[in-house]
Amino acid sequence: MDSALNRVRRVINQCDVLIEVVDARFPTRSKRLERMVRRRGKKLLLVTNKVDLVRGDVQGIPFSAKTGRGKRELMRELERLADGEIRVGVIGRPNVGKSSLINALRGRRVARTSARAGFTRGEQWIRLSPKIMLVDSPGVITWSDEEELLLEDALDVDKARDPVSAALKLFSRHPEVLEELELKGEGEEALEEFARKTGKLKKGGEPNVKEAARMIIRRWQRGDFHKPKNK
């Protein structure tokens, strides 16, 4: 059976330009995929999607499939790189919004989208302009770090063995989440505080930090945190 990584290798081989999509909330780049692209002499563009969920500057081309931000800039860059017809591939980890980015570029829904990680099963070629052909490819997980997968919305929190560690990593990287949750403590104390506030208690009144962590990670995956404040 053809693996997702083999399919991505095939896409890289077939394309002239590769767009690596990362999630603005945790913009983890795949060094392995980038090496594969560069070894084959292909051009690489970095696009940071979901910028509507963060504050501040990001790397690469800022993009929001939800609002359409960055669409013109990305299309201009692709047209600039086009010498005759070019084939463009979209790569990245699961749930960073690759199919949604394609839909935003095309202007209508041409690539299937789903909140479920790994929904895209095969390649779909799409013509963006007379010079540009675009292909979608499956998300690739290049290492098995459960905490990272949870925080990048590439793993269902209900399937996680240790959601507490992921929540603690979230607090460490984004302490502003504690402020948004109106929690005074830090680390596990914050989880205990959140469990009490939300009524997630075990028998005897002990705070259920594991369920509290799941609730927080679910909210993170939904994009409830870091939305820009109204001016």
Secondary structure blueprint with pairings:
Blueprint: H1 4-14, E1 17-23, H2 31-39, E2 43-49, E3 61-62, H3 71-81, E4 86-91, H4 98-106, E5 124-129, E6 132-136, H5 146-151, H6 163-173, H7 176-180, H8 187-198, H9 209-222
Parallel strand pairs: 1-2, 1-4, 2-3, 4-6
Antiparallel strand pairs: 5-6
Helix pairs in contact: 6-9, 8-9
| Helix/strand order | HEHEEHEHEEHHHHH
Quaternary structure? single chain
Any guess at the CATH architecture of the largest domain?
A: 3-Layer(aba) Sandwich
Radius of gyration: 19 Å
For this structure, what is the CATH class of the largest domain? Alpha Beta
Residue runs with pLDDT of under 50 for 5 or more positions? none
Quickly count the domains: 2
Strand order of the largest sheet: 3-2-1-4-6-5
Count, helices: 9
CATH topology of the largest domain: Rossmann fold
Strand runs, count: 6
Helix coverage percent of residues?
25-40%
Distance from N terminus to C terminus (CA atoms, Å) equals 52 Å
Strand content: 5-15%
Overall outline: elongated
* Mean pLDDT rating: 84
Written overview of the protein:
This protein is of the alpha/beta class and 231 residues long. It has two domains: 133 residues, 3-Layer(aba) Sandwich (Rossmann fold); 77 residues, Conserved Hypothetical Protein Ylqf, Chain: A, domain 2. 38% of the residues lie in helices and 14% in strands. The protein is built from nine helices and six strands. A six-stranded mixed beta sheet has the order 3-2-1-4-6-5, with helices on both faces. Helix 6 crosses helix 9 and helix 8 packs across helix 9. It is elongated, with a radius of gyration of 19 Å. It starts with a helix and ends in a 9-residue tail after the last helix. 34% of the residues are buried.
